[in-house]
Design a protein that fits this description.
This protein is an all-alpha fold. It has 2 helices and no strands. The protein has one domain.
Length: 62
């Protein structure tokens, strides 16, 4: 969890910088960088939350 709390804001800053760089220069590579990073972050976040959900299902106290 600590790793997520550090990486999510850093990834958000990198995505914003990519969009700003694209807006200023109109070079498509900055837009592609920002979108690819957004896809990776969303995918990893979904995987982590799915693992947390499965952990809750498996370790339910009876």
């Amino acid at each position: 969890m600590l790793l997520l709390r550090i990486l999510i804001p850093l990834a958000a800053i990198a995505i914003i910088v990519g969009f700003v760089a694209y807006a200023r220069t109109r070079e498509r590579r900055y837009l592609m960088f920002a979108l690819r990073l957004l896809q990776i972050v969303l995918g990893l976040t979904l995987v982590i939350f799915a693992l947390l959900f499965l952990e809750r299902l498996v370790f339910v106290p009876m």
